From TrEMBL:
Keywords: Ribonucleoprotein, Ribosomal protein
SUPFAM superfamilies assigned: Ribosomal protein S10 (SSF54999)
Family from the record: Belongs to the universal ribosomal protein uS10 family.
Alphabetized NCBIfam families for the sequence: uS10_euk_arch
Domain of life: Eukaryota
GO CC terms of this entry: small ribosomal subunit
Protein name, UniProt field: Ribosomal protein S10p/S20e
Alphabetized GO MF terms: RNA binding; structural constituent of ribosome
Pfam families the UniProt entry points to: Fungal_trans_2, Ribosomal_S10
GO biological process, one term: translation
Amino acid sequence: MVGTALLFRANYEVSASTESLRNRSKEHYQLGVRALRLELESTYLSPWVKIAGLVELMNYEYNAGYLSAYYHHLDQAAALVRAVMGNEAIDFTNLSGEQTFDIRCIAWYDILSSMALARPTLLDYKTDTQELSRLSRWDKGVDSDHGIEWIVGCPDPLIVLVARVSALRHAHISPEEKLALGTEIEQLARNTQFRPLRSTNPRFRIARLAMQEVCRHAAILYVYHAIFKSDSSHPTVRDSVKTIIKLASILKPGFNPDCFIPVPYFISPRKMSYVAKDKDYDATGAPVSTKLHKIRITLTSSNVTNLEKFSRDLVNRAKDKDLRVKGPVRLPTKVLRITTRKTPCGEGSKTWDRYELKIHKRLIDLHSSSEIVKQITSISLEPGVEVEVTIASN
């Protein structure tokens, strides 16, 4: 948990301590891996304790992008869940209580992984449609005893439907029957009612409602991708992606519920090509987002070591993108000198302090789209390095 907290702080806090925070979070993670290995080998600890340890470690791996370890631990967690719950399907309507918190987390990891890997879920889930109304009646924003919406942001009825889509995707039935069931799931996703959060803050209530609708359209996209095999030209796909983008734009970055947006964005990236409309093309017919510009990046710093390192990293990233790049060109070093009396008041002393500050500059020229430049300049800044990007007007 400490490692995850440090990781989040490192990701959100862009400062000189960012790299140090990341290193400390990795150290805590490595300690957690060793502790988990001992826990899993222990014959004295209950499966519930082992599941709790796996959940904390997987949470870190998910946010850090350690996907190989994440999926490996998910397999172990699913086996432990089957050991404690038997072979019965997990029923979200009856999954409540503090003791089921870790089970609910594993269920979410499992369902999300089934979408990411296009594989069946490791666990079985009860997906009876008549039970969806019971899930919708919970006010999950204030009741942490039920469901997992308050943890992951996606309404519980939609999580059940997503699990059902994954099961249908791998079902051995005729294509006609699969399409009919897919249409039924789509209608359920559209008709499911969500209970608003009982919050005194109207902006937060609106944001949560927007997030619920984002998840609704993400579930619809999953149906069209996994069952209907539709591409980005399908009208429903275009409408859902457009709705997701519009609703997500009203969420305040870095705050609840914006932190839940990666999953809907994960489901819909391949469907977003429709966004380029006629107005997104210039007079030559080239997409604006991919049109090449002459771009000059000016780097300034008093620390020549950090400046050289950042320049080198920037050029390497540009070359990895197969861009035309010139530089870094070293401009003459500017020397600033200040002479002042040693005494605070400047009187009664003939001794002087002389300060000197050297300002170093590097120029890098690129031929690239503005979107690619955003990607290559997104690396962590070295302390004391200032970046200025200028796009030449055409």
